[in-house]
Prior knowledge:
Pfam families: Tail_P2_I. By secondary structure, this protein is an alpha+beta fold.
Amino acid sequence: xxxxxxxxxxxxxxxxxxxAASNLEWAEGxxxxxxxxxxxxxxxxxxxxxxxxxEVAAFAIGRYGRIYLLDDAGNxxxxxxxxxxxxxxxxxxxQLFGSYAMMAVGxxxxxxxxxxxxxxxxxxxxSNGQTYWSRDEAEEGQPLHPLALSAxxxxxxxxxxxxxxxxxxxxxxxxxxxxxxILRIGLRGGRSQLFLDEKWINKEPAKLRHMRHRFFTAxxxxxxxxxxxxHTHILYAFASDGExxxxxxxxxxxxxxLAVDAAGQxxxxxxxxxxxxxxxxxxxxxxxxxxEQIAKVAGFRGKADQLQIDAKDRMxxxxxxxxxxxxxxxxxxxxxxxxxxxxxxxxxxxxFDSTEAETVWHKVSLLARIPEETQLKIxxxxxxxxxxxxxxxxxxxxxxxxxxxxxxTDKARALAPYxxxxxxxxxxxxxxxxxxxxxxxKIEWIGSERKTPLLQRLRVHYPRAxxxxxxxxxxxxxxxxxxxxxxxxxxxxxxxxxxEDRIAELxxxxxxxxxxxxxxxxxxxxxxxxxxxxxxxxxIRRFLRDAxxxxxxxxxxxxxxxxxxxxxxxxxxxxxxxxxxxxxxMSELREMxxxxxxxxxxxxxxxxxxxxxxxxxxxxxxxxxxxxxKPAFTEARLILLEPWMYLDMxxxxxxxxxxxxxxxxxxDPRNSIPNxxxxxxxxxxxxxxxxxxxxxDSEME
Length: 701
């Protein structure tokens, strides 16, 4: 087609600013209905399916989304969501804490607060159960009575009864007027501080054991500390320095669980017991950032006994009735339009000016994603004048559209007599009877609860061009048949133009810096990458850029190290046979080196840190890559370096093991230290039953 066709294009945020819009936003490279993030169910863990796990009394979230469970027998379990694997961390009958304990989990330790234990607050190693430290005093000479526990990256926060006394029956009671507070303890067990409020007191005498599950606490890292008293229904907020910020009175409902996300939004659970036949109207409530705004989290309905929010703002809810832990994560939700309450958006464009009177506008073409249950609708009108009658007054249309004092809904209604019938989901559509110098468009987005159309590019083509002009004049004589034939031939015209556009953009397809999505993954297959959902686009682009070097050194140490670095983001450690051959020649070291690195001379070992290979699927993918790039007739062994020290295993100083201070022990060939024995810790040296627990994980010979 040699007739010159021009077009207006809208494909950048600045292009869409010249118009009137409602409930629209620029995101993902296009214009869509405004989205918000709301919690929705991502996964449900059925605790009854975990063999050996009793009724769960408490849980905590650790690194990589791992769930730590404390059951009614006092057993501590680890559950890996990704691999659906669970294991017992401490041996049965450990007697370190009981089923009434509360816990929080750090990177390397689990922190336990047990009101029935001799050491009410203690930290234990996740790897072997060693006691890092323990504490039985709130302040100098004052007993510690934990009632709730939370933690951040800097400290523990323990709700404790400050004033207690012995009752007539010998049980500990909190007298009327007895104070409660939050004790801040450093993660090493020191540097404590007590947060108090003069009005946070006990109204009536009560036994301390009757206060279990009455208090809940949560902390925002680097921010406020919150405590909720389920008896008085008061939410206390303290600053990080211990100063009281607010005291909020909540409705007299049976609440349980308290959590705060990274944005400071507070959440509390409803733990009422309802009849089985009645409708379940129990929700997790969003208290906002101040505790005063109450809204329901619609993504979950049911009893909530405990809440936790992890570093990725995923919410975990323990339901003791159904014995489940439900994970909610932020999911996109379509916002309702304020004027109508419907999930829609609208944009009224300024005039497209062809600069020539009686221009016959050709068509509109859209690059858009239109999911099921959604629609894009376009209406239009054209005129040789830029001013028309609107609501009985002669107005300049563009000035009227840009008037901020008039609602977009009113503008669209006032121009209703001019709009054409809407074209629905028009990827490419002719503009019928659109003649005039100026053209205006009304574009409507209609979404669903979770989905919205995304308009990435809009083009308005002019003047009218048709393949009909290439046919003899005979085909244009009858107006009715001419109109039909013109629409019919436009199908082929669109096809030809799309082919020409694709040819013009062909260089973009083969540019790894510009390609994205499925196209980028397709390019990855050109260089032999088995891409799946675990490959990020940045990894694929880097692999494509470095492919010449990778294939140049394919099968060599340098090439394998480069390949692993691209996938994991960090160079690996590679051990070849010649590096430990001399060690194998020593009889006392042969068995150890063979178990660590293998005995075959044509094998090598690749060592990577576990945080770079978080799941079994990542590990399997990396192993396949090693098998594809290793030299022929060799064996590639992949080892994940665990972040702790085991003698005679993969323990490397400065890599996955560090000494925080010089060892105070001197070893000779006649002495040895068993695995999983803690040598020393800051301010805790030479304390029996703290660094070493006899008959639990250490023996004395």
